User: Fold this.
Amino acid sequence: MALLQLSEPGQSSAPHQRKLSAGIDLGTTNSLVASVRSGKAETLADSEGRHLLPSVVRYIGPSIAVGYQAKAESVRDPLNTIVSVKRLLGRSVTELKTLGSRPPYRFSGENRAVPRIHTVMGDFSPVEISAEILKSLGQRATRTLGGELDGVVITVPAYFDDAQRQATKDAARLAGLKVLRLLNEPTAAAVAYGLDADSDGVHAIYDLGGGTFDISILRLRRGVFEVMATGGDSALGGDDIDRVLAEWIMGQAGISDDVDHTLRRRLLRDACAAKEALTEQTSCPIELDLGDGKCWKGTLDRSQFNALVDPIIRKTLIPCRRALRDAGIGVQEIDNIVLVGGSTRVPRVRELVGEFFGSHPLVDIDPDRVVAIGAAIQADILVGNKPGEEMLLLDVNPLSLGIETMGGLVEKVIPRNTTIPVARAQEFTTFKDGQTAMAIHVLQGERELVRDCRSLARFELRDIPPMVAGAARIRVTFAVDADGLLSVEAREESTGIRASVEIKPSYGLSDGEIESMLRDSIDHAAEDMESRRLREQQVEAQRVIEALQAALRDDGDELLDPAERESIETGLAELKALSVGDDHRKIKAGVQALEERCAFYVERRMNASVRKAMSGHKVEEFD
Ligand code: ADP
Ligand code: MG
Assistant:
C-alpha cells in the first residue's frame, strides 16, 4: 500500500503553487513595487525599464494618467495633476491648513470632512488618488509575475497615525489589492539589509525622501527586531531643498514672490534638476525659461548649495537626537546607520549624518529601492511561501493614545513608543449621581490638553444603571493591532454592558463609503464613455461642416440655385447648433440629416468634376 504524502497547510510541494506577492513602497514622491523571484527580492520595472513610478496622478478626461506621463504634464496642467498626495492622505480639511505649504489644488469639503480635489474629471479624495498609484503598481506586478497577486505588503512612515494608516488600507482596497500587512518603512529597510541575519545590535534608519523624514532606532535581539523608538517630520524632505533652491533662483533672477502656478512648478522642476546634478557634479548651470522668449542663466556650485541646504539637513538631526533619547541610548551604541530615500544621495546629507552618528552610513542598496525590497521579503513570508520562517517584527506606536477626562484633560492609556500589538485597560467612573451615559472621546498626541491633541473618535456608553457618583466602574480597553490600528471598548463592570468603536477616524472611510466610491467609479465609467462619444460626434460634425463650407465657397454659386443654397445653409446652421449641445445621438442624427439634404449637391459636384476631368478627352479613353 502506498503511503499518502501529506503536506503541511501553506507548504507548497510544487514550485508552481507558490503564491504571488509583492511589496509596495507608496512614496510621497516616488512609488515602487518589488517581489521575491527565484529567491531574490527585486524591484519590478515598467515596460520601458524604469523602476520608479512618480507618485503623480493626472486627471485628463476621459482617462487618468499615472507616473512619468502625468509628471511630464504637471507644469502645464498643475490643477489637474496631483503630486505628493501622500501628504494629504488621512487628513481632514482643517488639518490641511496646518500643512507647511498648501498645495495649489482647488479643494472642496469642510472642517473635519475628507478633502476632495477638484479636477476636470470631477472631485477626488486623496484615498482615490492614491488608489490610482497602487492600481498601476499592482498591474505592473501582475503583468511581470504572470498572475493575480495573492497579497501585498504596503509600507508607511513609522509616524503615520491611525487615520493615515486606515486611509492607506482604504486606498489599497479601492485598488483591488489584498493587504497582508502595513509595514513601517524603516523596518522594511532593515529587513532589506538583512540586518535580521546579523548578530545582535542596534541600528538607526535615516530616511530622507521627497516629502518626509523618518528616523528609527531598531534593536535586533536573538533574531527579533524591536523598534526602540521612532521620530521624524512629516513635512520635511527633498521638496524643501527644491523650494529653498527655487527661492534662491528667484532672488538671483529678480523674480517677485507672486509667481503663477506654472512658473512656480517650472522653478521647482529646475531647482530639483540642479540639486540632483550637484550630487554628481561640483557645479551646475541653471537656465530658467521666464516665458516671452526671456531666459535667466546662472550657476550654482556645491559649496553654495551646501550652505543653502544645511539648515534643512540640520533640522533632521533634531528628531534623531530625540529618538536616541526615547530609546535611552547614546550615539556610540548605534552599530549601523542605514540610509534610505532619494535625498540621502545628496553628499552633504551623508557628511552631516556620518558626523552626527560618528561613523559611515550603509549605502550598498539603492536608497530608492531598499524599502520596497524589504516589503517584498516580508510579503513573501506573510503570503505563506516560507513556512516556519515567520519573522517577528515588533513595532511601536508612534504617538500616545488616551481619552478625555474632566476639565478637557487627556489621560494617556497607551504611551508612545509602546511595542505593538498591545492592549491596555484603564478604569474610569461616573462624575454625577445617577449618571446613565458616559461619553468617551479618544485622542492621540503627546500634549496634556484635549485641544492640543488629535481627536480620533467619540462614542457613548449608555444604559449604565443609576448609581451614586464614583460607584460605577467603567473599564476602557485600547487595543492596537500589528498594523497600528486601534479599537477601543468601554464596559461597565457590574452589568457587563459595553460599547466599542473600531477607530475609523472621521476622515477614514467606512465600508459603505468605500462601496459607494467603487460604485461611483463604475458609474463614472459609463459617464466617461458618454463624454468620449460626444467628443467623437462633435469632431465628426465639425468635419462635415467645414467640408461643406469649403465646397460652397468653391462652387456653391455655380451649382446651386438660391433656394437650394438657402436650404443647405439652413441645414448647416442646424448642425452647428446641435454640435455645441451635449447629446451625441442628436449630433449623429444631425450629421446624417445634413448629409441627406446635401446628397444632390454632392452628386452634382461629382458630376461636375468628372466633366471637368473628361473635357478634351474622348469617352473611349475612360473605359
Ligand atoms: P519618497 O519616499 O518621498 O517618495 P524618494 O525616496 O523617492 O521619496 O526620494 C525622492 C527625493 O529624492 C526627491 O526629492 C528627489 O529629488 C531626491 N533625489 C533623487 N535622486 C537624487 C539625487 N541623485 N540627488 C539628490 N536628490 C535626489
Ligand atoms: Mg520613501
